[in-house]
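Collaborator request, handled under Task 6.
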Amino acid sequence: MASDIITAGALHAACSAGDVTLVSELIARHQLLDIDSLDSDGNTALCIAAKHGHANVVTLLSKVDIVDLIFLQMNTFTGRCKHEPHRT
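Structure tokens returned to the collaborator:
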């Protein structure tokens, strides 16, 4: 749906800006919001927040959904944050 795309885009933008208040409001207002949706570069909202150093947003997002923090930690050091399938 178009509204889902707009909301996901707003979430990604808020994460990029480090706007924890807006991120929180978007999550609260849109219960079905997929916080793991990918932007055009293949990054999730969590990855975007981490790449920009917004620890408060990363903390908020990590409380909302189960995230693969090991993947995030490994790839933050290399500057990569694109979503890749979890390998077991």
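The cover message to the collaborator said: "The chain has one domain: 2-78. The helical segments are 2-17, 20-29, 45-51, 55-64, 69-78. Please let us know whether this matches your experimental observations."
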